[in-house]
Amino acid sequence: MSNSNHHTTTGASASARNNEESPPVDGPIYMATVSAPTNIACIKYWGKADADWNTPTNDSVSVTLDQHDLRAVTSVAASTRFPQDRLWLNGTEDVAAHTRRRFRACVDGVTALAADPAKWEHTHVHVASYNTFPTAAGLASSAAGYAALTAALAELMDAVETYPGQLSTIARQGSGSACRSLYGGFVAWQQGSVDGGSATTSTTTPWADSRAVQVADEHHWPDLRALILVVSDAQKDTSSTAGMSTSVATSTLLPHRIATIVPARMVAMERAFLARDFATFGKVTMQDSNQFHAVCADTYSPIFYERCLAGDCPPRSCVQYLGGGDPGRVHVRCRSECCPVHPGTVCRGGGGPHGVLFPLLLAAGDLCV
After folding, report:
1. Does any domain span residue 115?
2. pLDDT digit string (tens) for 133-187?
3. Beta 60-64 vs 39-43: how paired, if at all?
């Protein structure tokens, strides 16, 4: 696991600074390019405490993946020559990006932290970003993308945090889990509070303490690996934002999970990771993955993200479970028994059809999928 190539940031509400076109003015073009990783949550959040500030209903914690295979690469150019802000994602322009709240929150939030605010007062930005993996398919592409956007802007403008983790609160407003992709290793996202945690952040900005904190860096557990079984590159039938909103409104299991289950699991998971206790890490990861899907099934109408690995199962029949084979190993199997058995170590499913295996460092041939 490695850290992304960037800084990390704050909660700032979107402003209208660049919403209207302005006439181009001669001037230099400043540029920065940054890449950022995706992350895999071991304890998930599922639901918004405050949709306007994009804050979660509970704490969460994740493993940041190495950027060798999965990353977002974002280039930002700023100049007074540009009449308005523009965004291209995977080669296609989002013509309304300059008015979108999430994009504005990142651009305006980082600009407010610029070391020399006057330098950027009359500039607009052009942003080009691409992912090296499927977009909006359940692989946290938005987390990598908004982390890269925030980091690129911060590098370009020499942004200066006024308290630790402030940049992560800005990335959070683009995509919640983006705050965790600003750090390598094992990263917690603290829920925070509506009063902003003024005692620790020295600000009264709402939810300023809803930020990412690195629990352990990318060198802490070098034998831990992540193997992602990509089932489909199609976009999810139900987006995470829509799914969360429906679950919060209708699931009777979710309030119990938020109030009782997650706090205890966060403590157990952080202790396990710091101690490199793979048995506990695996158990809690599996339990939380299963409960996430239980909440989705408890939602009305139910949400099903799992998909059969073989491709010819009855709909919604795929299940991931721990057990069978050698002690401590995981099989990914299907209720209809049509899938082959895949030995791994710890399996985690999330807001998409893909499976994630967390094996420790294995000899060649020990893991067969």
Report:
1. yes
2. 876 556 668 999 999 999 999 999 999 999 999 999 999 999 999 999 999 999 9
3. antiparallel
- Does residue 1 form part of some domain? no
Is residue 181 in some structural domain? yes
* CA 46 – CA 254 distance, rounded (Å): 8
Which of 220, 237, 255 is at the close of a domain?
220
Q: Is the dihedral of CA 245, 246, 247, 248 positive or negative?
A: positive
Tally the domains of the chain.
Answer: 2
Give the Å distances, CA to CA, from 74 to 49, 50, 218: 29, 28, 22
Q: How confident is the model over 63-106, as pLDDT tens digits?
A: 999 998 889 999 999 999 999 999 999 999 999 999 999 999 99
CATH number at residue 325: 3.30.70.890
In 137-239, alpha helices (H): 141-157, 166-174, 198-201
pTM here is 0.83
Q: Are residues 241 and 104 in the same domain?
A: no
